[in-house]
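Intended use. Records like the one below are meant for learning the mapping from a protein sequence to its folded structure. Do not use them to infer anything beyond what is encoded.
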Amino acid sequence: MVSRIRSFILENQMIRPGDKVLAGVSGGPDSVCLLFVLLQLREELDFELMAVHVNHGLREQEADRDQEFVEELCGKLGVPLRCRFREVRGRAAGEKLTLEEAGRLCRYEVFQREAERHGCNRIAVGHHGDDQAETMLFHLFRGTGLKGLAGMEPNRGGLIRPLLCVERREIMEWLRAQELSWCEDSTNQEENYTRNRIRHTILSCAREQINEGAVRHMIRTAEELSEIERFLEEADGKAFRLCVREEEREYFIFEEAFRRLQPLLRKRLIRRCLAGLGGGLKDLDRRHIELAEELFEKRTGSRLSLPGGRTGIREYGGVSLRWEEPETERQEMEELPAVEIPGTCGVGDVRWFFSLENAQKDQIIPEKAYTKWFDYDKIENYPVIRRRMSGDYLEINREHGHKKLKDYLIDAKVPAEERDRLLLLADGSHIIWIPGMRISEYYKVTEDTRQILKVQIYGGKEDGGEDPSDDSGG
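Structure written out for the chain above:
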């Protein structure tokens, strides 16, 4: 068994000469096996070894017993040890997590902190083949793609899992043959933990009633899927460079290049972008990816809200995926009056007047700052008065060149504090009119216009608004 683990370590480049390895040791059979195997290989592979133990405080006397056991074991073996206490129950309640999730977060935070403190460039944990099989099934039942089915990686970012190539029963047999002791965690038998139900019910049934080598076969499948996943990740990288413009908290996917990709790579590209916006893939499932892809078939300005503050917006030439910070302007927007056509509405001392008229042949459109005429048939959604939002844009020329509202206001040297106070007339994310500044080229009246939307703003001389009774041009 040790020989197989050694080959597995070398094959996956988990440990190199001169490395310093921090091993997580809970006192259970898996971590005890990990510690002894690493000790046996330490001299041959030329690395330093130390250990860390996290006391979760969940099992009271059992937790103290485990810590004492690990302290005594590492003392006998001459392995430097650091023990840390974390209040897992309080964190679970405070962050609305399960005890499993909170415990995992606490452990890995301690592992990372201690590794940095002591100059360790590898963190070794005791996950074995049965854990891999449980993870594959857990991901499959919850809904996952190829990456989830590949399970845990042997080596990722300095976190190594040397025991993934062996089954738990092999570990137990080896420990008994070496006459080594360990601590039993009573929570491993509790069926209220999802992984315990998979372990004791589903995997046990698979071994006994389907195939004794079920876990061994799943380990091999996970290794093959990992190879396929690595190959596809390279293809993902090429697709990303070809199709995506990356900005701060935003990815713009160019439609023409995106449509040339194979369907599998399209979904993977969207998945990669959404994960890159922050929060990883937590709360994102296959349906979210599909909805984001469907944006390419929607009208410009269509929006999609996704978990974790992520938003998809259909724009000219592609789709923007971005993370939007909660803004107080959203609440202000909800309090603004609804537009009625024809009709009037007021925002503070300012009155907005809306009317419809038929376009006339060779009609001359006056140039006025606070009275504007728009091609009503081009408005895809019902127009609204609101504050600016992330994703807003307008057309700036007749060739349909568009510009983000944020960039336009910056170029126009509008102070930041004034930008947030601007009232806009909007059609989805497309800004129809920035009163006092300009309208979007897209909505201008042309010789093909049939219906005209006339909008007037009046609020007295202080704001420069125009009296709606004055219809003169100029």
